[in-house]
């Protein structure tokens, strides 16, 4: 059985801001809703933890 793993990329189709959540969802094979919810929850305690992680991922993960 040959299973080919897709590379992690920011999504061009499933994007709201920069495609990070859509890209993570495509990579892990789950709904992008869960990643968006996780980043939203990380924004609640003051914004910095979620926003900082998201911005880092925008610069690290290449676009498709």
Properties at a glance:
about 55% helix; mainly alpha; 3 helices
Structure, described:
- The chain is an all-alpha fold and 64 residues long.
- It has a domain at 20-60.
- It has 3 helices and no strands.
- It is globular.
- The model has no long low-confidence stretch (mean pLDDT 85).
Element string (H = helix, E = strand): HHH
Residue windows where pLDDT falls under 50 for at least 5 positions: none
Q: Total helix count?
A: 3
Q: How does the major sheet shape up?
A: none
Q: Please report the total strand number as a whole number.
A: 0
Overall mean pLDDT score?
A: 85
Structural class call reads mainly alpha
**Share of helix, binned:** 40-55%
Measured distance between first and last alpha carbons: 27 Å
Percentage of residues in DSSP E strands: under 5%
- Anisotropy-based shape: globular
Q: What is the CA-based Rg, rounded?
A: 12 Å
Give a quick precis of the structure:
The protein has 64 residues and is an all-alpha fold. It has helices at residues 20-28, 32-43, 48-60.
Helices, strands, pairings?
Blueprint: H1 20-28, H2 32-43, H3 48-60
Helix pairs in contact: 1-2, 2-3
């Amino acid at each position: 059985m040959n299973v080919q793993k897709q590379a992690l990329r920011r999504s061009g189709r499933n994007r709201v801001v920069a495609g990070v959540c859509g890209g993570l969802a495509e990579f892990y094979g789950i709904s992008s809703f869960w990643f968006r919810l996780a980043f939203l929850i990380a924004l609640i305690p003051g914004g910095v933890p979620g926003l900082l992680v998201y911005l880092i991922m925008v610069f690290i993960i290449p676009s498709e």
